[in-house]
Amino acid sequence: MAQKKAEPTVGLVALGMIGRYVSARATKIRPLGGVVLGAAGIAAGRRWYRTSGPGTTALLTTIYLGAFGASHPLAKKIGAWPSVLVSTAAAAGAAWVLNDTK
């Protein structure tokens, strides 16, 4: 598969990670946060697949969901917002390095 020019995904990753927290907290409807996380993740995943192929897509999806999962126990140690920002930076940084800079 020929690689295409990268379509930026850092914004989608940040939208998913920060948007899920803000939407769930503001509405008090936790599943809404999951919808935001999922929608942004699917949009980013489609771009990752077009640009970088299935292997990188699988890796970045794992990082994205892993950062989301890790944000919960991390929040107990450093607080909610710092945890959201750290996990967002990790997932967005990975997207930047592994996909967006191509």
Could you characterize what this model shows?
The chain is mostly helical. It has one domain. Helix content is 86%, strand content 0%. The protein is built from 3 helices and no strands. Helix 1 crosses helix 2, helix 1 runs antiparallel to helix 3 and helix 2 crosses helix 3. The radius of gyration is 14 Å and the shape is globular. The mean pLDDT is 95.
Structural class: mainly alpha
Radius of gyration: 14 Å
Write down the overall geometry.
globular
Spatial separation of the terminal alpha carbons: 15 Å
* DSSP helical segment count: 3
- One letter per element, helices H and strands E, the order comes to HHH
Report strand %.
under 5%
Report helical residue fraction.
over 70%
Quote the average pLDDT.
Answer: 95
Q: Which short descriptors sum up this protein?
A:
102 residues; membrane; mainly alpha; transmembrane; transmembrane helix; globular
